[in-house]
Task: inverse folding
C-alpha cells in the first residue's frame, strides 16, 4: 500500500511538472512581450519594466526563468488580468467555487440517478425495463448539451415560466460572497429573507445541474448496466444462487460490490468530460464559473488569465483522478494484493 | 425409494431454425446414501445434467422430462419457488474451478456465514454473531483445513485451488444436504490434493448419510470412489448400474472400450503396443447423428442403429443398445 501511494505521489509530481512546463512556455508562446504575458501589466514605465525583467529573470536562460516562474506560482503570484487589472488568483478564487459547486451537484445527481438505474437495467436484462432505460440512455447521450440547455430554457423558463433561466440567484437578494458556494453563502446569510433566498438559489441551480448531469447519467447508466450483466454471468454468482440466498441478498451481497468496483474509475474519467461540459453549461446559463470566465478570457486574449485558468483546471482534474484512484485501491481487494 | 429419479431428461437449445437436444432422453436413478459416478467425455453434457437438476440453466435452454422425482416429489410439477426451496434445502453443488466460484471481493468468512441457516443458531440476538463465527470455524475444521483462522480472513485469490474447493465443500455441507452434486471437483488439481478431496467426499458420504453425484471424466477416480456408475455419450445414456456389474461385464460396446484401457494401465502391456481407441471423434453439438449417437463410430453398428435404442434392463443393469456385447456369457454362467 505504501509503495502504491508513493507511486501515485510520483505520478502527481511528474504531471504537475508537465502542467507547469506548459504554463511556463505559454508565456513565451503567446504573442507579445513575455514580461507583459507573465505580469499582466499593460502599461509600465521604463523603470518598472526593468524591475520586472529583473524579477522574472527574463534575460537569463530558460532554466532560471522556469525556476523563477515556479517560485512565483507557489507564492500565489499568477499576474494580473489584462482586462480588469486585478490579480488573476483573486478572480479564480471568485469563479472556481461556482464551477466546483455546479460540477459536484451534477456528479452527485448522476451518481444517485445513473447508477441505481444502471443496476435496475442490468438486473432486468432483456426485459422491457432494461429496453426502456437503455434506449433512454442512448437518446440522452446523443443530445448535444448546448441544445439540451437551450431546450430547457425554451420550455421550462420561457414557455411555462417554471424556472429562472440564468444566474445564481435573483438580483433582489443580496448575498455576500463568503465561501463562493451559493447554497452555503445563502445558509450563512443573516436576514429575514434567508429561506426565500435559499429557495430562489435552488431554483436557479436546477436547470444547469440537470443539463450538466445528463451526459454523466447516461454514461453511468450504461457502464453500470453492462458491468452488472457481466457479473450476473460469472460462475461465482451462479454458485451463490445454489446457496439458497434470496434474490435481494444475492444482489446486495455479491452482485453490487463486484459490479460497482469497475464503475468507480469511470467516475474519475467522467470528470474530464464534466469539466468541458461545465464550460458550455456555464456559458448557456450565464453561470459565473471558471468555464465562463476562461472562455471570456480567450475571447479577449487575456493571456495571464488563460494560462492561470488552464493550470488551475488541469490541477483540479488531476487531483480528483488521484483521489478516486486511491479510493478504488482501498476498496478493491483484487487490486490491493 | 430412490433419492433422485430422472426419466428421459431432455435439455434442448432452440433457435429460429431448429432445436438441438444437447441432452437426449437421459435417465438416472440415484440410490440413497450412495456415491453415483456420472462419466462422459468432455462435452457429453455432464454439467448440463447437473445444472438442469439444480435449475441453474439460463433462459435459452428448455428442460423437459417424463419424471424428475426428488424423494417422490415431482420437481417439474411445482412452482418455481417451491422447487427452489426444495433444492436449496436438500441439494448442494460444488463446481469445477472452485476459485472462480467464490466471490472475489468478499473474505471467506462472509461467504461461509451467509450459508449457515438461522435454525442452527441460538435465538438470542447477542449470541448470534459469536455462534455464527464458531459455526464457520467448525465447518472449516470438518473439511480438514488446519489454519482455519487465516483461511477465514483471506480472500479467494489468496488461497490455493485445493483450499478453495474445501471451502466450497464446507459451504455445501453447512445445510446438511441430502445430495451433493460434485461437478468435476478435482479438475486441474495436483494428484495429492485430488486424493485429499476425494477422501473428504467419501468420509462425508459415510458419516453424514449424504449421497454424492460425482461428475467426472476421470475414469480411474470414478472406478475407485463410486458405488454406481452412469455413462453418458454425446448427451445420451449409454449404460448404468453398479460399479461391480459395469466393470465386470459391460454390455454396451462403448463401455467395454472405455474400461478396456484402464485395465491395460494396471497391467504391463506389450512394449510399444498401440492403445485401443474408437475411430473418429465425438460429434459437435451442431452435427449430432440421429438415432444412437455412437452409431457412426460403433464397431457393432448396424442398420437398426438409426433408431434410438430403448432402455433395457438386465439384473438391475440398464443399457441402451440394440446389439449389446458380453451377452453370450449369460448362457455359460
Result:
Amino acid at each position: 500500500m505504501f509503495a502504491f501511494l508513493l507511486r501515485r505521489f510520483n505520478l502527481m509530481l511528474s504531471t504537475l511538472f508537465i502542467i507547469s512546463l506548459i504554463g511556463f512556455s505559454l508565456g513565451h508562446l503567446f504573442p507579445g512581450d513575455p514580461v507583459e504575458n507573465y505580469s499582466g501589466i499593460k502599461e509600465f514605465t521604463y523603470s518598472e519594466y526593468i524591475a520586472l525583467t529583473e524579477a522574472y529573470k527574463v534575460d537569463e536562460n530558460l532554466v532560471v526563468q522556469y525556476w523563477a516562474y515556479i517560485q512565483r506560482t507557489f507564492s500565489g503570484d499568477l499576474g494580473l488580468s489584462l482586462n480588469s487589472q486585478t490579480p488573476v488568483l483573486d478572480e479564480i478564487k471568485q469563479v472556481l467555487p461556482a464551477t466546483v459547486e455546479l460540477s459536484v451537484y451534477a456528479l452527485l445527481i448522476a451518481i444517485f440517478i445513473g447508477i441505481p438505474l444502471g443496476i435496475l437495467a442490468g438486473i432486468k436484462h432483456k426485459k422491457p425495463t432494461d429496453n426502456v432505460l437503455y434506449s433512454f440512455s442512448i437518446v440522452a447521450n446523443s443530445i448535444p448539451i448546448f441544445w439540451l440547455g437551450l431546450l430547457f430554457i425554451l420550455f421550462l423558463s420561457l414557455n411555462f415560466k417554471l424556472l429562472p433561466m440564468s444566474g445564481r440567484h435573483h438580483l433582489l437578494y443580496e448575498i455576500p460572497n463568503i465561501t463562493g458556494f451559493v447554497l452555503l453563502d445563502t445558509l450563512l446569510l443573516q436576514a429575514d429573507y434567508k429561506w426565500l433566498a435559499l429557495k430562489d438559489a435552488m431554483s436557479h441551480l436546477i436547470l444547469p445541474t440537470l443539463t450538466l448531469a445528463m451526459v454523466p447519467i447516461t454514461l453511468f447508466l450504461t457502464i453500470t448496466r453492462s458491468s452488472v450483466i457481466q457479473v450476473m454471468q460469472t460462475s461465482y454468482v451462479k454458485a451463490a444462487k445454489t446457496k439458497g440466498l434470496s434474490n435481494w441478498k444475492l444482489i446486495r451481497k455479491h452482485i453490487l460490490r463486484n459490479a460497482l468496483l469497475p464503475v468507480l474509475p469511470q467516475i474519475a474519467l467522467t470528470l474530464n468530460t464534466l469539466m468541458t461540459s461545465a464550460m458550455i453549461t456555464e456559458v448557456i446559463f450565464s453561470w459565473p464559473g471558471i468555464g465562463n470566465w476562461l472562455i471570456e478570457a480567450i475571447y479577449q486574449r487575456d493571456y495571464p488569465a488563460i494560462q492561470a485558468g488552464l493550470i488551475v483546471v488541469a490541477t483540479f482534474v488531476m487531483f480528483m483522478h488521484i483521489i478516486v484512484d486511491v479510493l478504488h485501491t482501498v476498496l478493491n481487494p483484487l487490486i490491493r494484493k | 425409494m430412490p433419492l433422485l429419479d430422472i426419466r428421459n431428461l431432455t435439455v434442448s437449445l432452440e433457435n429460429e431454425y431448429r432445436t438441438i437436444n444437447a441432452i437426449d432422453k437421459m435417465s438416472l436413478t440415484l440410490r440413497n446414501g450412495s456415491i453415483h459416478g456420472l462419466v462422459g467425455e468432455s462435452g457429453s453434457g455432464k454439467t448440463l445434467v447437473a445444472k438442469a437438476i439444480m435449475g441453474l440453466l439460463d433462459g435459452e435452454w428448455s428442460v423437459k422430462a417424463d419424471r424428475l422425482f426428488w424423494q417422490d416429489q415431482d420437481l417439474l410439477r411445482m412452482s418455481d419457488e417451491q422447487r427452489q426451496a426444495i433444492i436449496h434445502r436438500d441439494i448442494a453443488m460444488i463446481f469445477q474451478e472452485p476459485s472462480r466460484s467464490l466471490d472475489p471481493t468478499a473474505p471467506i468468512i462472509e461467504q461461509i456465514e451467509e450459508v449457515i441457516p438461522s435454525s442452527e443458531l441460538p435465538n438470542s440476538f447477542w449470541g448470534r454473531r459469536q455462534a455464527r463465527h464458531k459455526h464457520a470455524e467448525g465447518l472449516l475444521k470438518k473439511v480438514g483445513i488446519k489454519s482455519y483462522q487465516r483461511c477465514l480472513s483471506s480472500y479467494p485469490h489468496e488461497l490455493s485451488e485445493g483450499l478453495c474447493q474445501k471451502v466450497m465443500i464446507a459451504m455445501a455441507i453447512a445445510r446438511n444436504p441430502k445430495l451433493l452434486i460434485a461437478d468435476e471437483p478435482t479438475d486441474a488439481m495436483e494428484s495429492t490434493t485430488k486424493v485429499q478431496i476425494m477422501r473428504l467426499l467419501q468420509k462425508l458420504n459415510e458419516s453424514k448419510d449424504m449421497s454424492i453425484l460425482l461428475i467426472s471424466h476421470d475414469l480411474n477416480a470414478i472406478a475407485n470412489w463410486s458405488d454406481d456408475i452412469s455413462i453418458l455419450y454425446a448427451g445420451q445414456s449409454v449404460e448404468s448400474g453398479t460399479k461391480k456389474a459395469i466393470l465386470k461385464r459391460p454390455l454396451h460396446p462403448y463401455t467395454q472400450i472405455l474400461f478396456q484401457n484402464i485395465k491395460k494401465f494396471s497391467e504391463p502391456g506389450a512394449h510399444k503396443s498401440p492403445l485401443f481407441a474408437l475411430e473418429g471423434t465425438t460429434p459437435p453439438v451442431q452435427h449430432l447423428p440421429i438415432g444412437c449417437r455412437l452409431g457412426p463410430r460403433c464397431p457393432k453398428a448396424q442398420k437398426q442403429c438409426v433408431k434410438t435404442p430403448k432402455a433395457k434392463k438386465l439384473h438391475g443393469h440398464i443399457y441402451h443398445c440394440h446389439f449389446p456385447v458380453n451377452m453370450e456369457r449369460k448362457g455359460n454362467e
Summary: The two ends of chain A are 9 Å apart (CA to CA).
